[in-house]
Every structure is written in structure tokens, then in C-alpha cells.
Amino acid sequence: MIPIGDNVFFFTRRKPIIVYLLIGIHLALFLWELKLELSGELGAFVNAWGIVPAQINGAIASALSGNPAAWIVVLMRGTFLLTGMFLHGSFSQILGNLIFLWVFGRTVESVLGYGRFLLLYLVSGLLTGLLQVLVEPSLTIPLIGANGAIASILGAFVLKFPQSKIYTILPLLIIFIPIELPAFFYLFWWFVQQLSYGIGSLNIPGGVNSFSIGYWAHGAGIVIGAVFMKLLSQKGRGQ
After folding, report:
1. In whole angstroms, what is the distance from residue 106 CA to residue 114 CA?
2. Integer Cα distance of 18 and 53 in angstroms
3. Which of 28, 56, 155, 227 makes a 20 to 30 Å CA pair with 36?
4. Which residue ranges does the record assign to the Peptidase S54 rhomboid domain (predicted)?
5. Across the strands, what pairs with 51?
């Protein structure tokens, strides 16, 4: 199933500037990853800037044991919760995330506005990254990708427009059939799609995004996005 649009966005007038910006950043960094892959430096780069729970928890343990200098390392490692969400480990992962960002993000941005949409994207990415560290503290394989942030956008969209329809293409061999599906369907399809994100993987020694509980923790972004949208909707009614 490939979503290509919804029946809500065209009724809004706000240009999705933040969506354009985020897509540009993700693509630019992925091209940089491809360059590093050719030079054999990609593995070191991903391990340095991705989310590695064992490294973050090791730094925290050292700091709590009485090593003040370790707090600097904790701060540095903490920034990787943000940088890791802008890296991707395969062509299928970045393609899937950017399609969802384009289809659902434009409408959510038009509702929230530029600032609040960017806040949702970054905060949900940070929170899902932190959750990944908490649920699998000993994981040594990097976790990368905007999956958690994209999940939050999906959650916000479905909460705000539960009755909306998503224009979808159903690929059958060489035939592409256009259909309409309810937005709720993509809450299920988002999880199914994660299973295909190993297709077209980049050559990263040691691998990334092991299909463990830490990887699936980014699904919490759906709840984060729905809560974010619910709170803003209540605030709007109260004004």
C-alpha cells in the first residue's frame, strides 16, 4: 500500500514549508551517507551519531558513580537522540518515512502551524529515542531513522481527522490500482511497513535497527502525536 494523498489537505491554504524543509534535510543527509558508504566510513559515522543505548546508559552510570566529567559525555550522547532520527539505514526506510511525512505531514502542519508542527516532530523523535534507550539499555546496535517522529504525525492526523480517506496505490506486479482507504488503516499499516525497512540496506558493519523491543518502541510516537493534537484541540476550544 502506497499512500499518495488525503481528502483533507486541499481544503487548507497553508504551504507545508516545514515538511519541505524536513524532506530536504533527510535527503541531503542520506546522500551524505551514500558518500560515506563508498569511502568505507559509514559504519563509524552511524555508530558515532546514531542512538546506541548501551553507550548512553554507560555514560549515565559513570556519571552517577561519581565521575563529574561523565556528565559532559551524557550531554553529548543525549544529542544523538536528535541526530539519530535524521539518519536512515536503507532506501526503503527513508522512502517509506518520507512518503508518510509528505502525505500526512502536510495536513498536520496546516492544522498546527509551522512552529508547533516542528515542535511535534522534534519532541516526538526525542521522546521515542529516549524510550528506546530505556526499554533496551544494553543494546549495542545503533537505532536510526525518523520512524518515531513519523509515527507521531500519523497519530496526530488520525486523531484530528478520524473519518478522512487516504488516496492509495495498490501495486500488483506491474499494475497499480488506485483505491481509497480509511485513515485508521494506516495505524496498522505503519507497523507492517516497518518489517520492510531492511530492503535496500546500506553497508553498515554490525548493522542497524535490530528488530528488537528497542526498535519497536518508536511506535509510541503514535500515542505522542495523538496526545499532542488532543491537547492543542482542547486549548483551542478553551480560547
Report:
1. 10
2. 29
3. 56
4. 81-234
5. 143
CB atoms within 10 A of CB 228: 24
Residues 14 and 105: their CA atoms lie apart, in Å, by: 12
Q: Which residue has the cell 558518500?
A: 35
C-beta atoms surrounding 234 within 10 Å: 9
Q: What is the pLDDT of residues 9-47, one digit of tens each?
A: 665 667 889 999 999 999 999 999 999 999 999 999 998
In this structure, CATH architecture of domain 2-236: Up-down Bundle (1.20)
Q: How many CB atoms are located within 10 Å of the residue 79 CB?
A: 11
Q: Is the pTM of this model over 0.85?
A: yes
| Sequence-distant (≥ 6) Cβ neighbours of residue 30 within 8 angstroms | 87, 88, 94
Nearest-CA neighbor of 202 among 85, 55, 94, 100? Answer: 94
The fraction of the chain above a pLDDT of 90, given in percent, is 40
